[in-house]
């Protein structure tokens, strides 16, 4: 068959290839070319994605040159206004370019079948037998007929897709493993649903082919030779009617001339104002679709009623009358009812399926153990919520992925590949974050509907048990070996600290040197802002040097060997206070130091601790013109009671009257790098109090603080007797 395709070659390529596969001879022409001239093309496909005057004019010209051809509009989507305009311009039907190839093939098959049945001439007006009386406009007939022919095609497509999805979900549901097996009655019921879905799918396919061969566009069928009608005057009295009108009237009325149409057709009652508008040519027409007549002895009758003016144009000497056209719509309405019933049944099946699937899903997801179902090749098909929680993956990240994404045990994977899984197996697995897990799997084999095998693995995390076993084995290692390892580590850390200290201090010294050179040689060239930059560089180097010093002290406080001796804390306090006073002679600070406070401990470490506490007090009293720092032993019984400390354990304190702090932030004081004041207000690294805490903990002691904003702070600390220090040190080393 000769087929003309008008449009973009690339956009229409799929339809062109489909037509060529049906052995049609295709001629392609662009929109810009003039309308095709004879020879006769039985079928013309016109790309009409967007409505435009050019497309409408082209349709009219094609219809003029090819009055008997079948003109098909190819659209991206259905738009009623667009389609109405195309039908008015001579288009017979339409195709969706975006539809799947299978649907396009079916539509083209129906169009080709109609071409074989269509005569080469048509009657312009189906009311020609009525003496050229006007009927409904050709565009309305085209639109209704086209929509009617498309309805079973669209509805059956969506219903078939729904049924296919139902079958797929039901088969998956029956194949899924479950902790609690389905009852035999439930399985049988689900199989009945699958059989019913198969039957409905086949029925829809049969109905589609059947209705497409009967419900056709009137322009594609042989000309209509008869249509029932009733002609009324302005009082709605019957003037003339066709023989078949009686069957559309109410059962208890008789159609005859001179009676009011509303007696036999009560649907017209209430439309008087609209009918008057039609008689005065102010309204084109009125239509009522799907009117039903029911009888106790016969099947229901459905029909469409269309009212228009007669004659169609004002004619002098011919008063306007109303003509009612009656079309039998029983076949269409029954088909629509069958489709609606099928859709309702499909919806009911889908609801029951969703309920059953949800019930089984709840059972699987309520399992505390991880469930993994794989194919024989090791591809994951199903997991439960416990699996997601255990391994840290979402379900979509594991489905259709190899089980090796979870399992690192090569023996297990090898057995799985060979289909030789053990019933019980402890397997090395890995979480999403890389953490290794030990999972004890119980494995089994199930048969699938396509006669293949799936593997079901139910696993429980036994990592804690495995770690406990490993810890028990580690405890059997000799103390001598552990001591050697610790000594080696300490030596390496000490070497590392010295290296880092040297490597960091050297570039800082270089920066300070060149900064000083820049100030001395080019200071007079720099403006005030440049001078400030040099000061900022110098201050930053100082803070960096202090930070290195504090970090080294922190490292030494935990690694330095703890040798015990009698340490005079009062003497250490006097030395530290003298150094602070000498470094800042302009400050007015009074030191109150209690004498003869001695403990058992490491003098070097305790000196570092006191230095940090005194430096802390010195720094936070710097804003006061006169301040006081006190060191002594606490003898307040309330302090001992609040902290639950034995009266035999001395409590020492360092107190100042400086800036103080908010007690709600007291828990942050001893965190590394934690500071309660800004750098611009009080300089510091945030490490000093952490060093103090580490040293006192090595001495078996504790430290805590109390403060009031603007009124100062007091740091309390304890140092336990010598035997308790040794026990604490032994605990730390172990």
Write the layout of secondary structure elements.
Layout: E1 2-6, H1 13-21, E2 25-29, E3 43-47, H2 53-65, E4 70-75, H3 80-88, E5 93-96, H4 101-117, H5 138-175, H6 184-214, E6 228-232, E7 238-241, H7 261-264, H8 272-279, E8 285-293, E9 301-310, E10 321-328, H9 330-365, E11 370-375, E12 380-383, H10 385-391, H11 395-398, H12 410-417, E13 424-430, E14 436-447, E15 453-461, H13 463-475, H14 479-522, H15 528-559, E16 565-568, H16 569-583, E17 588-593, E18 598-601, H17 603-620, E19 626-634, H18 637-643, E20 651-656, H19 688-698, E21 703-708, E22 712-718, H20 722-733
Parallel strand pairs: 1-2, 1-3, 3-4, 4-5, 17-19
Antiparallel strand pairs: 6-7, 6-10, 8-9, 9-10, 11-12, 11-15, 13-14, 14-15, 16-18, 19-20, 20-22, 21-22
Helix pairs in contact: 1-4, 3-5, 5-6, 5-9, 6-9, 14-15, 15-19, 16-17, 17-19
